[in-house]
Every structure is written in C-alpha cells, then in structure tokens.
Amino acid sequence: MKPAKVYVLRYGHRPQRDKRVTTHAMLVARAFGANGFILGDVVDEKVKEAFEKTISIWGGRLHFEMGVDSFKYALEWKKHGFIVHLTMYGLPVDNVIEEIRNRMGDLLIVIGASKVPRFFYEVADYNVAIGNQPHSEIAALAIFLDRYYQGRELYFEHEGGRLRIIPHERGKRVVRKQPFSTLDA
Residue 40 belongs to a domain with what CATH number? Predict the structure, then answer.
C-alpha cells in the first residue's frame, strides 16, 4: 500500500547560494509525484515566487511551506509517517525501495543543501543512497521518486495550469488552456 502523502523536506538552503538548486528540487518534487515541498528553516521569496509561477502555468496541487523548523517538522512527521534521508552514505536504493514502497504511513524525503546534521541520519527510518559517490540532491530525488513510483510518475497529469506539452517526435507542441495575461510575461 502506498503512503497517503509524499513530501520533500529541503534542509540547509542558503538563499544567496542555493536559490536555483532549491527551485529545481521543488520542480522535480512536483513533476515526479510528491504532494508537498517544505523549505526548512528559512524564508526565500524567490523560491516561493518560482513555486507559484510553476503551479500557475503548469498546474498541480503541490503543498508548499517555508521557514518551518526542520528538526521539529521531522519529529512531528514521525507521529504519522516515516522518513527517508537521501545521502550518498546510505544503503543502495535498490536494496530498500520495495520495503519503502510497501510501508504504511506518509513518506517524508529529506534532502540537504549544506552539511547535513547527524540528527537527520538518526531520525530517518531509511538512509538511502543513489550511488555512493558525490552527486546532486536533485538527481537523487528524481531517481528515488522514479524508483518509488516505478516510472508511473512520468505520466501523471497535473490539473489546472495554462500550458500542456503534447509529446511530439520533432519540435515543440504546447497547448494553451487559457490566454496569458500581460502579468505572465
């Protein structure tokens, strides 16, 4: 049975340095099937603006919060769900994905930006590695969600929004569901 919810907690975001990377992590969370994205410990209006623009244009129902205490959020999550911490030091994803996929409760996926405190290694029910070499947390999140949903996330439809891409062998085909205002430029 699938968890009722899949959320991503981004820990350690540094606004001056990580805006683009965190925005891309949020985009991957949305596109690959997460129900929510939590930007822990800081408020970054640029990330929020990118989130709101993405939902407005492309649709979806991704829950978004920022500025929450990451430690408290994780501890509160444990009352109704479980935590997967993506780290290159964890167990290989293929060794644990089936168990995670079949586990009851809501799933919180933790991805770091700056050095991740020991707390997350200890609070996590699973420390999961997408390879044991240095890599991007964005790539780790995408691969984990792909393995978790077994490729079905690539076909999820996002309700709402004003644009939809029509798969096409050559070129770009985009359907506009409603006209853009001058504010969208």
Answer: 3.40.1280.10
Sign of CA dihedral 123, 98, 114, 89: positive
What residues make up the domain containing 24? Answer: 6-155
132 in a labelled binding site: yes
The verdict on whether residue 70 carries a ligand-binding annotation is: no
Asked, for residue 181, whether it belongs to a domain, the answer is: no
The predicted model scores a pTM of 0.88
Residue 71 lies in a domain: yes
137 marked among binding-site residues: yes
The answer to whether position 177 is within a domain reads no
CA distances to 53, 69, 141, 155 from 108, in Å: 24, 15, 12, 22
pLDDT of the chain along its 185 residues, tens only? 455 799 999 998 877 888 889 999 999 999 999 999 999 999 999 999 998 998 888 888 889 999 999 999 999 999 999 999 999 999 999 999 999 999 999 999 999 987 889 999 999 999 999 988 878 899 999 999 999 999 887 767 777 777 777 777 888 888 787 655 544 44
Q: Is 57 flagged in the annotation as binding?
A: no
Q: Is there a binding annotation on residue 136?
A: yes
Alpha carbon of 26 to those of 6, 87, 126: distances in Å? Answer: 13, 18, 21
How many folded domains does the chain comprise? Answer: 1
Q: Is residue 26 part of a domain?
A: yes
Residue 35 in marked binding region: no
